[in-house]
From TrEMBL:
Keywords: Membrane, Transmembrane, Transmembrane helix. Pfam families: HGSNAT_cat (PF07786). This is DUF1624 domain-containing protein. PANTHER family: LD22376P. The chain crosses the membrane at residues 12-31, 51-69, 85-103, 115-132, 139-156, 195-215, 227-246, 252-276, 288-312, 332-357. The keyword Transmembrane helix applies. Residues 7-154 form the Heparan-alpha-glucosaminide N-acetyltransferase catalytic domain. It comes from the Bacteria.
Amino acid sequence: MKPTISRLISLDALRGFTIAAMILVNYPGSWSHVYPPLLHASWNGLTMTDFIYPFFLFIVGVSIAFAYTKRLQGGFPKNEMYKKILVRSLKIFLVGVFLNLIPDFDFSDMRIAGVLQRIAVVFLVCAFLFLNTDWKKQAYLAGSLLFFYWLAMTLIPTPDEGVVMLEPGRNLAAWIDRILLPGKMWEGTWDPEGLFSTIPAIVTGILGLLAGKILLEGNNGNLKANYLMATGVPLVLLGLLWAQVFPINKHLWTSSFTLITGGTAFIALGACYFLVDILGKQKGTSVGIIFGANAITVYVLADVLSLVFYYIEFGGQSLNTHFMNGITAIGISSKLASLLYALLFVGINFIPAYWLYKRKIFIKL
């Protein structure tokens, strides 16, 4: 039976709400006043915020399965698809580098790694995998990469330390980045979006491919929702078990972190698919769909708009500082004021997203 390909409102909405959540946690009114769940875990551990980026990479994988299954069925030549995949990956990567350069454009202090850069690499690898392997090979590769990463990180001594370590800047991934990654790194001696830790991040994308496979098979929606959620639960449990020997760590994108966040993404997608696409409970999804229609464009726009709100001063202070001072002056706590500002900034970014959506302008980087 050929895969059934139809537009999933749940997937579009989940993509958009994930981007909105990225903007929410990236642009508080003040980094000195943020509720703990809206911050990444300082090292080992997991907060609500740590799920956002893996969810987006997972959705990238699901979207690849849908987009390229349709192209394959349409008879598109693979060589043409390869070219478009390479071009799109390069564009996303270069936009990420551009965002790292603004506002100073100091090429001598340029950071090559970044969020969009990792998205570009994951998209590139997963798209090529999808076009050339079946789901069994993808699952086998995912498991093999996670085991390889675990063994490498926990058995190979860091050359400059002479011992195995999993501390900030003192681990095999950080050492590899210092040797191979050009430009500056986010934390000086290490980068959370570095080269070696991109390997398990690719697995997050592969998990999305596998979820896409489930959604594309057959016409029984209830069964597909059940499969998604039933796949997610053991992945989370396996991740929790693995965490006993390989800690949950977003900065290192450990194997346990990959399974827990990926499994949760399976469960979330299955639940959303059941509620939205099967039961038809679409109320409230429009905001997510609008953000998701131009997801990466909105992410880039938020970074550019932040220059106006965070860096350009009016009356000797930035706009976010004016907001924080004004709101706290009427008795609202600093953390709540910071959250309200972040919500306001999400709303401001919704305006161009809505404008693009209403005019059916979909910018595909």
